[in-house]
Design goal:
The chain is an alpha/beta fold. Helices cover 66% and strands 8% of the residues.
Amino acid sequence: MNLDFLKSLVVIFGVSALVVFLLHRLKIPSLVGFLIAGIIIGPHGLGMVKDVHAVELLAEIGVILLLFTIGIEFSMAKLIRMKKAVIGGGGIQVLLTIVLSAIAAYLTTENINKSVFFGFLIALSSTAIVLKMLTERGEVDSPHGRMIVGILIFQDLCIVPLMLLIPVLSGESINIMDIAIKMGKAILIIAIVLLSARWIVPGLLHQVVHTRSRELFIITIILLCLGIALLTSRFGLSLALGAFLAGLIISESEYAHQATSDILPFKDSFIGLFFVSVGMLMDIGYMSDNCLKIAMAVTLIFGLKIITGMFSALIIGSPFRTAIHTGLGLAQIGEFSFVLAIAGKAVRLVSEEIYQIFLSSSVVTMTITPFILRSAPSISGWIASRHLLKRVDRLKKVEREGFPRKRQGHVIIIGFGLNGRNLARVLKEAEIPYVVLEMNSDTVREMKKKGEPIYYGDGTGKEILHKLSIEKARLLVVAISDPASTRRIVSIARHENPNIYIIVRTRYVAEVDDLKALGANEVIPEEFETSIEMFSRVLHQYHFPNNVILDMVDKIRSDSYTALRSVEFPKRHLFEKYEWLPEIEMDGYKVPEGSYLIDKSIAELQVRKKTGVTIIAVRRGPEVYTNPEPDFRFKTGDIIIFTGEGKSMNMALNYFRG
């Protein structure tokens, strides 16, 4: 057994746990802790880990599992809806970054080939870091989250052509037909993988699940993840992209959630190793000797990537604030840039000095990224609210969309997803006036054709809310998947209309207190509303009176779900005081034609005396007779509602049948 490798793992996990724990007390993201741990124990630090390559192998597995779980959370339908972000946003961002980076590099190298290759290195962003941060913050499905994820997917797709172009830039003789064949193979394997999502994998998983073996299910999921990643890498694609495609395949089956829960423990362990391995690359000695050069490189990288990310989002129609957030999220160097750098170094497109500067500046950008993403909502909101371009953009949107005339006493719905649509349907039936604000231009266009009072705009803008008459509205409902935007909307709405009633839907209960403090009247976290629905139904099965259940629900909601969050339940059995109740049931019987019950009264039938059940209601067509009198006579088609103990119910059914 290789004890050296085992010792390395013990050192990595031990130091990482200590560093992450200490930084957690300072409220510093865990990703930074893993990077710092890598710097400490790496070959350029204390040298506590010798076998760096073995750690890198495990780290790559971590990236694969991360992309796999992200793929499961997506679906083919969602990916198709994101085509504008993937193809449009991603294509513009990569092309712009390569061009601008090449121009900047040419000013110093005066070599067009090396300059273009430098653009290749800068164009890619860190899928692992950004997606992990977005997932932890619940922002994957937010407007900026969808834009960032779409661009990251396109960047991963670009690895194939970028790798194929390295020999071209190095001046080697190139066979165009060979490049075309390799590209064709890559496209073919993607098509095969995606088609299997519909025809092969669901059937395979169904057979595996039928064995009722959890071990077999987990092995099959890991096999699909690693196997498809390995298969795609054989055709020139990245392992991570293959893992993402594998996740997409499983997302189309009904076993996606179970697969995610089984893989999560593996992913979290291995992904920590990835960030540790990145930290090991940093040479503190070299950085201290060349800190000025590295600082200039980091500034250049951040500047270029923020500009290109922001510009690509603006071109495809994203609001200014979302565009800024996108640029900030893509500002770092990606892990796959290291692969390109090594390949470029082998063919002398990158000198040793440039490679070291690139390596150091890349790790610095990755280390800073968690702090940038944490502060991105505040930065983007602050810039957007003060920037002239934002105001011009708002005015154009207002003119183009033709906002409604001033109204009062209406409901403003922000976000037209499933919750927003259901609410709008109910308000329409109840003839309550409402307007909808949505940032998805395709949704706005589609719903306008159906007659919905829906308008395009960003609810974090004060001007947009006033166009919807926020100052005269009676109620505001915020139903979007962007925590930062939700907080800002609530704050602005409360300031502009102190009397408005604000209801907010949030995905996580951790948001409840913050939103209440900002001015929300009611915050509905999806996590606990599901719990309330479940325990209400359980209590109903134990025959708790409806008013008791409703009182419990109202108490929990009125106290901001504190009762559920504190988990302070009495030690005594919840239903102990109701144990004297018999097992009471309720059932119904429809009087058929020719039944002996027809024209018989309840008194004549003596139902209670002969069966032990009590008739509590009779439905006759649209009318319902509750607690019918003893002289009530039955007719054909009557539905008799009765209640009693289990054995009495069977006797009653037999008695009614004659």
